[in-house]
Amino acid sequence: MIDHAAIKLRYDALDPLLDERGRRRFAAAEALAAGRGGVAAVSGVTGIARSTIGRGLAELRGKAAPDAGFDRVRRTGGGRRSLVATDPTLLADLKGLVEPVTRGDPMAPLLWTAKSLRNLARELGALGHCICHNVVADLLRGLGYSLQANRKTLEGTNHPTATGSSVISMNR
Question: Positive or negative, the Cα torsion across 106, 108, 112, 114?
Fold first, then answer.
């Protein structure tokens, strides 16, 4: 008899602390402990796919390929494809929005734009792209732009005669 409530209790307690690898191996360990029907029970309780639990079982039994390192959670090539790969017009539209307001010497390696990341993301959204400001920042860095904040200049405060105490006379 498999105790679904106990599996759910342990999973709910550990889920916030686990990454993909830990979640996969936890589910596999629970399935092993449950015995026959354990994979189906753990999958039903946790919502983790049976194939993922199967990969975790292979890892626990030593039949899976060893991980490339502890810093890698997913297989090589795993994860979502980049927006540039799935949306071929994204970079051209971003360049079209940024180039009219580009600042800096075009021959120098330092370029920046006067538009904010959130405004660029909003304008790209109006053009039909689903993108957030963080991805816009990554794309701009890839295009060679430096992310510079707009800054107002303060006039008159650094002048020596502004305070009257440091007046320099050139007449002698």
Answer: negative
